[in-house]
Design brief:
16% strand; alpha/beta; globular; 7 helices; His_Pase_superF_clade-1; 219 residues; 6-stranded mixed β-sheet; Probable phosphoglycerate mutase
């Protein structure tokens, strides 16, 4: 299966640096809507069989233009949502942002017993995200679009692919509507074909002034 792991479009929280992981979550900013509208054109050469989104509203809104253009339903899938911030929910200080991302990346490095303050550990995160990908895999063996979240995509990619490690995931940004393309299977493993950290609709859709902890480089 070929996974197009697409981060959702910009939300107000992404502009303000808020750790915002609760359901149903915010909608998109005006820029976020433009980012979403640019996705179908950017993926025009991809033979997409299915479109899967998380239980958070921002992924569903991001996938809407692509779903309409392809005539495909958006499949809301348990397990694809953002890493829960726990006690850090709603906070925006640099220290809290770094703590959140460091915990997530520690899971990708194999430290699965580390717990997000008041939230999940790595076993819980990888368990539910793996289950979501396995469910998609049971239905498709071609190319699918999975619209998910910055920390979730970066952490899962670093922990589950053979050629991207946690250092790469931490050093490389994944802006809103950035994309990671991985090929393989849960049984045989995954290889990253592409990591495009800028919006797939073009660099003109990148908000360089935003305080976006789950998408920014930690290098």
């Amino acid at each position: 299966m070929r996974l197009l792991l697409i981060r959702h479009g910009q939300t107000p929280a992404n502009v303000l640096g808020l750790l915002d992981t609760a359901h149903p979550g915010p909608g998109l900013t005006e820029l976020g809507r433009r980012q979403a509208e640019a996705v179908p054109g950017a993926l025009r050469n991809e033979a997409i069989e299915g479109i899967f989104v998380s239980t958070l509203l921002r992924t569903q809104l991001t996938a809407e233009p692509l779903a309409e253009e392809r005539g495909l339903a958006r499949r809301i899938t348990e397990g694809l949502h953002e890493i829960e911030a726990g006690e850090l929910e709603g906070l925006s200080s640099y220290a809290d942002q770094i703590r959140y991302m460091e915990v997530a990346f520690s899971w990708a490095a194999g430290e699965l017993d580390v717990t997000m303050p008041g939230g999940p550990d790595g076993h819980e995160f990888f368990g539910r995200f793996d289950n979501a990908i396995e469910a998609i895999e049971r239905e498709h063996d071609g190319t699918v679009a999975v619209v998910s979240h910055g920390a979730a995509i970066r952490t899962w990619t670093a922990g589950r692919t053979g050629n991207v490690d946690v250092q790469h995931a931490a050093a490389n940004a994944l802006a809103n509507t950035g994309i990671v393309i991985a090929n393989g299977s849960m049984a045989d493993g995954w290889v990253v074909e592409e990591w495009d950290g800028t919006p797939i609709g073009g660099p003109q859709l990148l908000d360089v002034s935003a305080d976006d902890p789950t998408g920014e480089s930690l290098a």
